[in-house]
Amino acid sequence: MSYITGIFERTNLQQIREFLLHGVECHNVDNENYETRIKHAEERYKKAVFESFPNLSRDSKIFSELNNLLTVYENVNIEIGIQLGIQLIQDPKKY
Description:
Elements: H1 3-10, H2 13-22, H3 34-52, H4 61-90
């Protein structure tokens, strides 16, 4: 195995994301697909909410507002990612 093959085998988008966002290595690479990762996070969130607030209805406004918040985070992060990608393409030597 050449060292180049080793680099490609270690390459992981989660590692790149973690380094760009936080400047650290990703210690917990999640090999599940995106849908499964989202589903598990949603299940943990709902479990925590209903354990904390047992009388809360499942169609509560808190879930709607959380979805709105997460949508804004998602939109902003996608826009930042697109801008960074464009900057890398325009001037790869800068980075």
